[in-house]
Amino acid sequence: MAAGGFFNPDPKDLLRIRKDIDMNYSDWKKMLADKKIAKSFGELKGERVATSPKGFSKDNPAIELLKYKQFYFSRNFTDSEVLSNNFLQEMNQTFRNLRPYFDYMSEVLTTDGNGVSLI
């Protein structure tokens, strides 16, 4: 298995992620629709809350994405894929395909809502 993302962000980070989704929903849709990510991992995975999160309207266009509590991707490999001669290259490309997601999330989690560095 190859996996990456944010399995259990702390409450402050989860709120920061949700605020970014709310303010930049079109960017999130574009990132999550990226063909390389979709080819390697499929859709975003993670637990979700049943209703709208506190502070966000149930009518928000991004509500389904805002419900996420975890934000990760995973990909399973078959035994034959793991044993193949090109598995290391495939695994490397798999993680390279996820790099834009990590770059975006790093920006979200290291800046405030105005883009000012938190570190």
List keywords for this structure.
2 strands, 6 helices, mainly alpha, 119 residues, elongated, two-stranded antiparallel ribbon
List the helices and strands and how they pair.
Blueprint: E1 2-6, H1 11-23, H2 25-32, H3 35-41, H4 63-66, E2 71-75, H5 79-83, H6 87-110
Antiparallel strand pairs: 1-2
Helix pairs in contact: 1-2, 3-6
Description of the molecule:
The structure is a single chain. The protein is mainly alpha-helical. The chain has one domain (2-110). Helices cover 51% and strands 8% of the residues. The chain has six helices and two strands. Strands 1-2 form a two-stranded antiparallel ribbon. Helix 1 crosses helix 2 and helix 3 packs across helix 6.
Summarize this, please?
The protein has about 120 residues and is mostly helical.
> What is the tally of helical segments?
6
Biggest sheet architecture: 2 strands, antiparallel
Please state the average pLDDT score: 93
How many β strands by DSSP? 2
